[in-house]
Write a structure and sequence with these properties.
Blueprint lengths: L3 E4 L2 E2 L4 H17 L4 E5 L7 E2 L3 H8 L8 E6 L9 H6 L5
Parallel strand pairs: 1-3, 3-5
Antiparallel strand pairs: 2-4
Length: 95
């Protein structure tokens, strides 16, 4: 059986550095517990919380997990971006 985890947001009062440290702890704990899918969404103007942008965040997290852990974006608000940006930053790059 496979299990996944949606990585969430944190209150804006948490510093960006601490936010990322917490995210790394979640990712390591999930991988150690056998989770095989990690996902993150994209949100703008989301009240008093911070959401890290999914593509650069997942690119960084890819270095923290084994190849059997899949990374996914659950929400990508493409209409707010230049038409080339989503395709150029998210094309498959499997080795």
């Amino acid at each position: 059986m496979r299990f996944g985890l949606i990585l969430g947001d944190v209150p804006a009062s948490v510093s960006p550095r601490e936010h990322f440290r917490q995210l790394l702890r979640q990712v390591h704990a999930a991988a150690d517990a056998g989770f095989t899918l990690l996902s993150i969404g994209q949100h703008f103007l989301y009240g008093d919380v911070r959401c890290l942008q999914p593509i650069p965040t997942l690119a960084r997290l890819a270095a923290e997990v084994d190849a059997d852990v899949k990374l996914a974006i659950t929400v990508l608000i493409a209409p707010l971006a230049h038409p080339v940006w989503p395709r150029s930053t998210s094309s498959p790059r499997d080795a």
